[in-house]
Amino acid sequence: PYFDEILLEHARKLGVNIIRSCKALSPIYLDKKRISGILTSKGKLLSSFVIDSSGGSHWLARKTGLCIQNYSPILIGHYGYVKGKCPSRDNAPLISAENDGWIWTAKIKPQIYQWVRLFFQQPHNLKTSSLVPTEYKGLEEISCHRGSNVTWRLVSKSSGKGYFIIGDAAFVLDPLSSHGIIKAVMSGMLVGHLITKIKQNTNNEEQAILYYNRWMSTWFYKDMLILKEMYSNHPYPPNWISKNIMLKKLKR
Q1: I need a surface site. Which of 97, 120, 130, 162 has the fewest CB within 10 A?
Q2: How confident is the model at residue 250 (pLDDT cuts 50, 70, 90)?
Q3: Rg (Cα) of the chain, in Å, rounded?
Q4: 61 with 174: CB under 8 angstroms?
Q5: What sign results for the dihedral spanned by CA atoms 86, 92, 96, 101?
Q6: What global pTM score does this model have?
Q7: How far is it, in rounded angstroms, from Cα 98 to Cα 162?
Q8: Burial class of residue 201 (count of CB atoms within 10 Å of its CB; 0-12, 13-18, 19+)
């Protein structure tokens, strides 16, 4: 939340009109072919382009019926925060392999530590007490643990007439790929550049759409192959990683 507020404040200073407590209901179409805005709980918002940064909920993809292809079993990343002293984590974060997945631990503020845990297969009768890493035992839990769906998945078309989908809204890989923030920032920057070129009539919209779709899908497949190789080298690799993950050939 703190990082989000920094970004929002910077956007305000640049003149962005920010509307809070407003729910997106559905896209608005122009002649049933082009997205030209969204219908919200506060009325219609019309625009030349809609940029979806809704994260793993894939709002626009689900509202428009775009295909969301899964490339792994259902994976849930569990995470939480503790308060106290953990000297072993004060100088460096740690990623450690477990016989059922991996754990990441790190100090994020003075006496505040975070943990992230991923199981290769969701255990039955999961107990919250078993999630907190051993090195954090005895420290004060300052929030209930949460879970996020990090199943490997890709939206079939990250852009189309009147829209672009950026960040996790376009594709998701689990946190070990470590590209979440970079993906959000770089895809947002590229979309801003492409839309500017389109509005200046220096770039064809159809070409921009094709370029962006290929750029995002190529990024996804490359990162997925690297992640697959990393899991293949895990001391206890998941049984599903050894199976052939079929990759769609990118259109040239």
Answers
A1: 130
A2: very low
A3: 21
A4: no
A5: positive
A6: 0.88
A7: 45
A8: exposed
SS3 158: coil
Mean pLDDT over residues 110-116, rounded? 94
Pure H helices in 50-121:
59-64
Sheet holding 171-172, edge to edge: 68-70, 153-155, 171-172
Whole-angstrom CA distances from 48 to 29, 44, 197, 211 are 11, 13, 13, 19
Q: How many Cβ atoms from other residues are within 10 Å of residue 3's Cβ?
A: 8
- Which structure tokens are listed for 116? 């992230």
The CA-atom distances, in angstroms, between 80 and each of 102, 113, 145, 164, 178 are 15, 9, 5, 32, 18
Query: Helix or strand or coil: residue 78?
Result: strand
Per DSSP, 91 falls in state: S
Q: Residue 57 CB: number of other CB atoms within 10 A?
A: 12
Query: Taking each helix axis from N to C terminus, what angle separates 205-232 and 180-199, rounded to the nearest 10 degrees?
Result: 170
- Cα-to-chain-centroid distance, residue 195: 22
